């Protein structure tokens, strides 16, 4: 693998570098948290209700919600981010096995950063359009909302790690 001397190994001699593994872990974590954020009804909470992007809960009864601009923006940018994260995961895995120059690795990093920016835009639009309700009524941000912001951080960190 490294010839006889383990101190003189080139990047192409390593099957999978630590940066690739860390980048893939961050990308997979970002993808998972973003999917959970999209699918769960915990974006906003009040005393007896929870609202998500697709459904709400009143007590223990699930109700379908009419999506407004905030929900549509968060959903659209999250889906774009999920596609970018899948591309980043595949590119990081391919780069670890076949990319001695590092171009595919850079592609993985850029896709991860773009995914983070996409999530950030969707979350920022949702936050901006819902902040008045949170401030005025007795409503608080929920766990799905927090997972959305966490996926932004994970994607951005993964992209930076993949570029380094």
Which helices and strands appear, and what pairs or packs with what?
Layout: H1 18-39, E1 44-45, E2 49-51, E3 55-58, E4 61-64, H2 69-98, H3 103-136, E5 140-141, H4 143-163
Antiparallel strand pairs: 1-2, 1-5, 2-3, 3-4
Helix pairs in contact: 1-2, 1-3, 1-4, 2-3, 2-4, 3-4
Question: What would you note in describing this structure?
Answer:
- By secondary structure, the chain is an alpha+beta fold.
- It has one domain: Butyryl-CoA Dehydrogenase, subunit A, domain 3.
- Helices cover 65% and strands 9% of the residues.
- The chain contains four helices and five strands; from the N terminus they run αββββααβα.
- It has helices spanning 18-39, 69-98, 103-136, 143-163, and strands at 44-45, 49-51, 55-58, 61-64, 140-141.
- It has a five-stranded antiparallel beta sheet with strand order 4-3-2-1-5.
- Helix 1 runs parallel beside helix 3 and helix 2 runs antiparallel to helix 3.
Average pLDDT works out at 83
Number of domain modules: 1
CATH-defined architecture: Up-down Bundle
Query: CATH class, please?
Result: Mainly Alpha
Give the biggest beta sheet.
5 strands, antiparallel
Span between termini: 23 Å
Strand % is 5-15%
Helix count from the secondary structure assignment: 4
Number of strands: 5
In a nutshell, what does this entry contain?
The chain is of the alpha+beta class. 65% of the residues lie in helices and 9% in strands. It has one domain: Butyryl-CoA Dehydrogenase, subunit A, domain 3 (Up-down Bundle).
